[in-house]
Structure formats: structure tokens, C-alpha cells
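Supplementary Methods, section 5.1.

A reviewer requested that the exact input to the structure prediction be made available. We therefore reproduce it here, unchanged from the version used in the analyses.
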Amino acid sequence: MRAPYFYPTAGWGFAQEALREATHLAQVRHWLTQAQVDIFASSHTCLPIYPRVEVQGHPTLIANNGAAGLPNFIGTQYGVLTRIATRPYEGPLRCCGVQTGRVYVDALALHYDQAAWEQAFLAQWPAGSAAYMSYWTRLQQGPRYTVGEAVPPVA
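The structure derived from this sequence is encoded cell-by-cell as follows.
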């Protein structure tokens, strides 16, 4: 059996890979109970996720935007930001989202100049560098992550 991850800071405790672990969900429920919120918006953790988590019979939503400056879904070249509002978003930038009560939480595409971003990236992290190896394919093709994975079933 694998040892559980430890996510002590920022939004990493709300990252999509962390939220897949049943044992970690107990810690997440504890954090959400302590926060006493209906929606918890976390800092970016590379991939967006908008799960609903039952906390003592109460639906709670985690809003994690993923990355504003990197592609977030396979086959894309845009970042994502989270919009939380009392009216639904009706524009073309919506990637996915959920409604909880009378609140709408949407992942919106954040387009940027892809060519300029690639030039800036390569100027700092040339081919063969660790960052290049980690991110270049993602910049070109997006991660192996789909829009459907960003809105999982209720946990």
C-alpha cells in the first residue's frame, strides 16, 4: 500500500490527483468543515478541478482553476480562470462549470499569445532543460486531461 500524500500548503491539497485518494478526502472534508463555506476557491495546481464534496450532508464545491498561463485540457492552448457569480456565464469562453444553489462556478478559457509565450519560454528554458522536459509538450498539445475530468462525480 502506498503512503498517502501530504498537502500542507496552498491549493495542492485540492489538486485533482490528491482528490482521487479516498483517504485524502477525509482531510479535505475536515478542512471544509473548519472553513464553514459552501465554495472553496483554491490557488492553481496545474490542472483545473471543480468537485462537489459532501460535508456532513451539506454539498460543498471546490473551485480550482488549474493554470492561467498553461493549457489545461488536451488539444488546447489556453489557460483557465474561475468565474464565481450569481448569474450564469453566457459567453463563448466557458470550458465547463457547475451550479451550486444560486451560484455559478465556471472555468473560462484565458487566451494568450501562444507564439510570444513559446519564445519567452524557450529563452528561459531551452530544449533539454528540466522545465522544457516537463512543460514543452503541454504548451504544444495540452495535458492528457479532459474537460470531463475537471467536473467529477460527487465525492
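Residues 125 and 132 are 6 Å apart (CA to CA). These observations are discussed further in the main text.
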